[in-house]
Amino acid sequence: MRISSKKDRGHWLLLSPYLVLFIVFIALPVAVAIYLSFTYFNAIEKPKWIGIQNYITLITRDTLFMQKVLPNTIKYALIVGVGGYILSFILAWLVAQLTRIPRTIFALIIYSPSLTAGVTMSVIWRVLFNGDQQGYLNALLLKLGIIDKPIQWLQSPQHLMDIMILVSLWSSMGVGFLAMLAGILNVDEQLYEAAYIDGIKNRLQEIIYVTIPAMKPQMLFGAVMSIVNTFTSAGIGVALSGSNPTPQYAGQLIVNHIEDYGFLRYEMGYAAALSVVLLLIIWFFSRIAWRLFGERD
Amino acid sequence: MAKFTTKTNPRYFHKSQLKFYFILAPIAIFMMLPIIFIFSQAFKPVDELFLYPPRFFVRRPTLANFYELFQITRASTIPISRYLMNSILTAFFTVLFTIIISVFAGYALSKKQFKAKNLLFTINNLALMFVPIAVIIPRYLIVQKLGLIDTFIINILSLLAMPIGVFLVKQFIDQIPDALIDAALVDGANDFHIIFNIVMPLLKPAISTVGILAFQVAWNSAEASTYYINNENLKTFAFYVSNLTQTTGNTVAGQGIAAAAGLIMFVPNLILFIIMQSRVMNTMAYSGLK
């Protein structure tokens, strides 16, 4: 029997600072969001209970949400979240094929963009993608003769989303990438040996039948990090274009829509309903990740 | 027959690895370009910023942009050093308290036996995917109710609950044998004694990792400054930088200043990570979610 399992309440003392902060800044906001989503609340009068009216409005009346914001969010989440995740794994695997010193250098180079703090970096992106011929991308493309007049990259609805995706992918090789790299490096060598005896023929089979199954926990951690990173960086469209709403709502994601309704129009109840939808989307993506790599279920 | 050696994680160089260099080199260049661009742009003198067609690399590096960055706030009542100091204080205390809070909670979740333990750990795992911005309005209302609007500590408080920190510490403490802790208990040590004298020294990689993650969040976060603070005196440098174009306008000279500010944001993160990278990788080996 463990001695430390004696009756004592020490664990609550140790847990209390974290629990208090967790409740105040994580659990309670989620609960309040769910409650407010069933109310009309304009931040001045008391919230008024209106049942599922906000959700009905969301589905039937908010054409902007259905036509622009939701498709944008799903497109962004699939490419940056899922695409970025797959890319993280591929890069981690490639890097793991090198000896220690070059591996460390490449890993550092691939990881470092994630240190650049998405929204803060937009000051830099605006220079690279500047709309006149002084912009670096425009100048380069003009010189190469690919375009004949400068393109308003960040103000044009056709390009804004692509640039948001490019920028987010670039900075998406964060903690998840490191975790997967560590996972790949720690796969037991004997597993590979046994697999080759059992008839594995090439490296792709090695990845599918040995590497990934052996590092499922890291794959799952990487997936969760990828989801978080995707939705945390989702304010980038507004940061890049410099306006909320973004030009013709081309880069409008749910996060921006929430801010638009909550802080610009003070329809906090409706904004809360949007928050709940966003939380459900995040939860949905993470369910898929747990299905794929989780050990329970 | 030669002993089997895996090709992953090789110990020696072999020419079969060259193909990976050929794939990775262009990717690495692509990844590095924007970062090189920040460095290059930050040190460009004004005439090079105005150059047409624009040139990517700086020819005659100068510190003028950094000087200008500190100058533009001269006219306003709040100097830039104020924002920087707020950021430094926020980062320092966020790192310190996140580490302490995460280690206490991680230790309890790893080595203590109590009923709600698995439930709490499961909830924490669920919270790993928590995105603060998603519930920014309720967070704002709660902060308001607590009377924390326009206080300096909200910069720190809003960042301290870090599920990933507790998770990583807990996973790492799981590797420490129970016998070590039981022996200390027999000697009459209490929890705090055990945490500070036995667990903490073995926990250096995890603490470094949590510290680095907390630093990144604190240094890069403009959430508190944007939503909870109206008093310019209490806002952080990250907020200042993300609003810089409003100060300088989207002018050519402003671009050099923006790059200088971007560089100040980026470099501390990079240096810390380079120093800590082997500890971080060590921690990541235990990051698996089951």
UniProtKB/TrEMBL annotation, chain A:
Keyword field contains tRNA-binding: no
Keywords: Cell membrane, Membrane, Transmembrane, Transmembrane helix, Transport
Transmembrane region(s): 12-38, 76-96, 108-128, 163-185, 219-240, 270-290
Membrane topology category: Multi-pass membrane protein
SUPFAM superfamilies cross-referenced by the UniProt entry: MetI-like
Annotated ABC transmembrane type-1 domain residues: 70-289
Pfam families reported for this sequence: BPD_transp_1
Top-level taxon: Bacteria
One GO location term (cellular component): plasma membrane
Xref: Gene3D superfamilies: MetI-like
Signal peptide annotation: none
Subcellular compartments: Cell membrane
An individual GO BP term: transmembrane transport
InterPro entries with a match to the protein in the record: MetI-like, MetI-like_sf
Family: Belongs to the binding-protein-dependent transport system permease family.
Name of the protein described by the UniProt record: ABC transporter permease
Species of provenance: Fervidobacterium pennivorans
